[in-house]
Amino acid sequence: MAIETRPDTEQDAVKASPYQALLDHGRERGYKLDWLQQRETFGSAPDIGTEDSGGFLLQNADSGPFGQTPDFSDNMTGRPRGALNRAESPRVGNYPVRTKSDVWLRNGAQLYEEAVQRQWSSSTDIPWHTLEALPDEIERAECQLTTFLTEVEFVAGDVPGKWIAYTTPDYYEPRMYLVSQIMDEARHLDVFRKRALANGGGLMGQLNRAGAAGGVIDSARDFTEMSARLHISGEGSVLSLFRMGELMSYNDAEKAMYRLAASDESRHVAFGVMHLQYLSQTDPERSAEIHGYLDEIELGLTAAADPQNPVVRGTDSNTAISILMGGGADRSSIEEGQKILIAIRRRQIKEYMQRVRVAGFGDRFENGRASAMLEEYVST
Ligand SMILES: [Fe+2]
Ligand SMILES: [Fe+2]
After folding, report:
1. In 232-277, at which residue ranges do the beta strands (DSSP E only) sit?
2. How far is the CA of 127 from the centre of ligand 2 (A)?
3. Cα of 39 to ligand 2 centre, how many Å?
4. Rounded to the nearest 5°, which phi and psi values hold at 189?
5. Exposed/middle/buried for residue 108 (C-beta within 10 Å: 0-12, 13-18, 19+)
6. What structural domains does the chain harbor?
């Protein structure tokens, strides 16, 4: 039987290929080189940066063909984006989040890099030695507030945490960003816990979760709903409070604690705003649904009492902040503290509205959809 041969020129070309030469080399020596596959995507040469430019950044590593993110992902096997499919791979993940607009944001890799570069330590970056004995009511108020913060910081970690496992590995940038957020929240939990225990006090009462208006953060059923509730509303409100941390600090340790936590929170809020903006630009069909979540969020933001927001009256942490900001537990100090809290609440609402505008849903403030209570807060 005649053996079919290829024309000499083609054989020569194949022979000349370094890939083929490598395969031949292995075969002649008994190596199994089946895993070696010729890829047209080989040979990327990303900008690895310099020490001055911030080093080799994730967004630059993935600037070539492997950076192409699919609008829909069929990847159920944990395959890294851009890697070759292995047909016999088991389904290690059953990822409900496989539509890009459901989880994506522009510059997710940059935000992750920023998170990595700005890690700090509650052990060594807080000047704990500046703590001094405080009047009893001030110490108790600080302990009540930090007990509250210890509890809610944990929520801010474990709520986004579950979405990491729900999201296809093809969208690894938001997944890795969420991993960094969980690290941040663990640190917040630990810094506030340390403060509760550091100065002769201790942990006080847990959060009373009854009566939360507008749904609670951990009730979200969809990633964008969760992100709007947590990143934009919940963490946005906490950020407004932390930014005023100087007003409730009695030493440099507390100032550093609120300042460093605020810098992390601003990154968490940015993630939520950037994600919602991406969704509004790429999937306008979800717009009515998103407005529905914002309706619920605004119910909470404007509620007369809200256990999740320490700035709103009616909680132990609210009274604690009044004492800290007013400088004592007597009536006039608490009233003074309440006045500052009302100003912070106004700021929370103004900042919320600004974030929603940036995210592309600001029409609700012009067309009567948004809660009328918001305007009352910002206009007084
Ligand atoms: Fe936090
Ligand atoms: Fe946070």
Report:
1. none
2. 22
3. 41
4. -55, -45
5. buried
6. 129-379 (1.20.1260.10)
pLDDT at 362: 97
Name the residues around ion ligand 2, CB cutoff 5 A.
Answer: 156, 235, 265, 268
Torsion of Cα atoms, 361 then 364 then 369 then 370, to 10°: 90
- By the 10 Å C-beta count (0-12 exposed, 13-18 middle, 19+ buried), 95 is classed as buried
3-state secondary structure 126-171: CCHHHCCCCCHHHHHHHHHHHHHHHHHHHHHHHHHHHHHHHECHHH
Which residues of the chain, if any, have pLDDT below 70? 1-16, 210-215, 304-308, 380
CA dist 239 → 151, 230, 289, 301, 310 (Å)? 16, 12, 26, 14, 12
What's the gap in Å between 138 CA and the centre of ligand 2? Answer: 26
Quote the pLDDT of residue 3.
47
Q: From ligand 2's centre to the CA of 299, what distance in Å?
A: 21
d(CA 224, CA 273): 10
Chain length of the chain: 380
Place of tokens 């083609």: 10
Ligand nearest to the CA of 160: 2
**For residue 9, what pLDDT is reported?**
56
Q: How far does the centroid of ligand 1 lie from the alpha carbon of residue 162, in Å?
A: 17
Question: 42 CA to middle of ligand 2, Å?
Answer: 39
Ligand 1 (single-atom ion) residues, CB below 5 Å = 153, 156, 185, 188
CA 374–ligand 2 middle distance (angstroms): 23
Q: How far is the CA of 232 from the centre of ligand 2 (A)?
A: 10
Ligand lying nearest the CA atom of residue 153: 1
Q: Is 362 exposed, middle or buried (0-12, 13-18, 19+ CB in 10 A)?
A: middle
Report which of 65, 279, 242, 81 is spatially closest to residue 169, judged by C-alpha positions. 81
Q: What is the pLDDT of residue 63?
A: 79
CA distance linking residue 247 with residue 216, whole number of Å: 28
CA 188–ligand 1 middle distance (angstroms): 5
Beta strands in the chain (DSSP E): none
- Give distance in angstroms: CA of 238 to centre of ligand 1: 8
Check: CB of residue 342 under 8 Å from CB of residue 173.
no
